[in-house]
């Protein structure tokens, strides 16, 4: 460079409107997401709050809106998620342990893994059809709590497996090596070291899976669960309804009053979901932070 | 120290042996546990086999009565009328109409949010937005359906003068917001996985944030974003309760979003709600429709996973 | 380019000026090297500097080594990671109640070899072993070998201290517990004995129920040694046990190794040649998966038989 370069200043006073505008647009999109949530909750509260009453919690569904309640469906939901949890947690965590701690990296493991990833993407209504064909008809369980719970367990099984696998993977390999080097067997290592260390993550995943099971209506519709029951299920062989089904039923009626009832039932459902999620956060904060690798 | 013992294990009494009287791995308990855990993993495989078997067995019976050609090309879906018509196109069309609308809504908003979160947002904002998205994702489908019925549909009706309270547009709107969190979190992940060096290189050349984002980061993450959108489409296609409540129950071969349509999932719900006798052709239609649904969503998922896998390999 | 360790053998107290002047990138490790060699006394400068042996720590002589029984005997050992052969025809006898050091540049296979001795490599999916390893004359790889029992007899200490995220006591008690010991009093007895053995008892005796993760790095590593002792092993494998520790903690670990060799057969992998010289009786030099030379530490460091060994020890490569 022979001649002296033109003097350039860093203070160009130039602005980049395109860049700023783009940032604003993206920011707006984000604001829309938040607005959507706020709007959704506001709508539900506005519609549902007037219908919140003790009648809602203590009566069964009725043709008269002012007498209708969610007792049967709420109890049905509690039955469902209890049994679903009992079924899917041992199987899901067991499968995760098998994949992470036992299975060698073979075609078989990859197949199972691919299969689980795909199952997670299968629409829940398809599980409902499976439940209808397999549990209700072929196994003859009828439209019972058990058939519904088995179906829901299959819906959330991939969620439990994937969450548990992630939690197990987060346990450092050095812990396993230390345990093996001390003459522990594989199961002793898993049961005494790996699983306790992974427990907060596993529990968080399980709680999220339960929340999902609680909100699912489509598979239950396909299984043929009732939308009107005038009793609390007494055993796993009883017919049942579930809270999201009750909401669906009310929302699909033409009368405005039932829409209000549906919104009120949603508030109850959301309260239960919030409690579950608060539980997940609590587990994460209380036990997750204690172990630092 | 000079005298070294030549044999034996002085610390413990008898000589220990590492060989066992039985064959290796004689620990019966360990073997049983391994079997049990393996069985758990097999349950997931059996689930897939079960889905395919149940769908196929009833569908085959259905296709014994209705030709595959009529099913796939027929423009009328009236299985409950006489004479019945079994053309799945109106249901597929309804599904695509709702899904297309949902993607048109969720795609730009989701991508914009993802870009904002990964490129612009200060950590504090991220900390607030992430839980908001998690909550949106965690709200059950039926809740979106109720909001569609009570709020979105009346607004759409007033704004666009749709005749029916049930219309594809309100279904698209609620489904769009349902799949929004999925698009945001998946695309944000891939955007953030674009190496920092790449950004630094562009900034060092004097690029503005717009240039860096649209010409470097988004192109680098494009396949991941495509995968995210594919997964969201799959989710929207399989979406049931909200769509059933919002879009109605009219099999309708139309592209007008203001008309009432019926999706594949909504049809399954409609038949399930009624008391259709096992073995009847109506009963079997839900398996045929379910099989169609399963095939479409499964292919989308597999393609999306393949795209994601290829992208991951590229950066690792 | 593998650099660590090589310089250390010649970094004795009387040579710093030369080292400071040089621009060799390897010299950047100087501070660390000087610190690590602080316990050394300067010897006469020769083409190969013999490490200065601590007079308080007599190493076993070549004759003593020859007289010792082979606790572990390895013959024709080949090891493969998939298609890559990591170890070639290793033949080595590890004498009982002696310290054997494996030295060599990173990736030379010394850690892989160590992990063959308690079959920790079993857990690697595509690893394959050929050849014979005998522990007290019994094959490690026979069809009826119980790996769990083997690992109780051949303990291991890892490069990075890896205490369980539990209390100090639970860490020690783990080995006996998985072996079936349930008696709490007995477990405390074991914990006290092992902690004393690992020279950690005085520091932790009042807080056995505290989390092991609250200990310092050096204490954690001694806890891991104590934990390994609790299964009553005969052999102790140590995979660079002091590489992540400060010089003071390193010195304590080395003292400990020296005390433990009266009771245990110890195999230590190290990339620090002075450490090998300080603590070991026998040294084996590995290079690119081949055991180049093994012999009494004194011999190897003062009079290596192979040119490669000499080059490595004098820091000409590595």
Description:
The complex is a heterotrimer of chains A (293), B (316) and C (318). Chain A has helices spanning 17-48, 54-58, 71-102, 107-120, 124-138, 145-169, 173-181, 186-215, 218-223, 243-251, 256-288. Chain A is mostly helical and 293 residues long. In chain A, helix 3 runs parallel beside helix 6 (145-169), helix 3 packs across helix 10 and helix 10 runs antiparallel to helix 11 (256-288). Chain A has a domain at 77-242: MetI-like fold (Orthogonal Bundle). Chain B is mainly alpha-helical. Chain B has a single domain, classed as MetI-like (MetI-like fold, Orthogonal Bundle), CATH 1.10.3720.10. Helices cover 72% and strands 1% of the residues of chain B. Chain B is globular and about 70 Å long. Chain C has 13 helices and ten strands. Chain C has a six-stranded mixed β-sheet with strand order 6-7-8-3-9-10, sandwiched between helices. Chain C has a four-stranded antiparallel β-sheet with strand order 2-1-4-5, covered by helices on one side. Chain C is globular and about 55 Å long. Chains in contact: A-B, A-C, B-C.
Key attributes of the depicted protein:
heterotrimer, A: MetI-like fold, C: 318 residues, alpha/beta, Rossmann fold, 6-stranded mixed beta sheet, 4-stranded antiparallel beta sheet, 13 helices, globular
Record the SSE blueprint.
The complex is a heterotrimer of chains A (293), B (316) and C (318).
Chain A: H1 17-48, H2 54-58, H3 71-102, H4 107-120, H5 124-138, H6 145-169, H7 173-181, H8 186-215, H9 218-223, H10 243-251, H11 256-288
Chain B: H1 28-65, H2 68-73, E1 77-78, E2 85-86, H3 89-120, H4 123-138, H5 141-160, H6 168-193, H7 196-204, H8 209-238, H9 241-247, H10 264-273, H11 281-315
Antiparallel strand pairs in B: 1-2
Helix pairs in contact in B: 1-11, 3-6, 3-8, 4-6, 5-6, 5-9, 6-8, 6-9, 7-8, 8-11, 9-10, 10-11
Chain C: H1 16-21, H2 30-36, H3 62-67, E1 70-81, E2 84-95, E3 99-103, H4 110-116, E4 127-135, E5 138-139, H5 147-153, E6 154-157, H6 168-178, H7 184-197, H8 201-204, H9 217-229, E7 235-239, H10 247-260, E8 265-269, H11 273-279, E9 282-287, E10 290-296, H12 297-302, H13 307-313
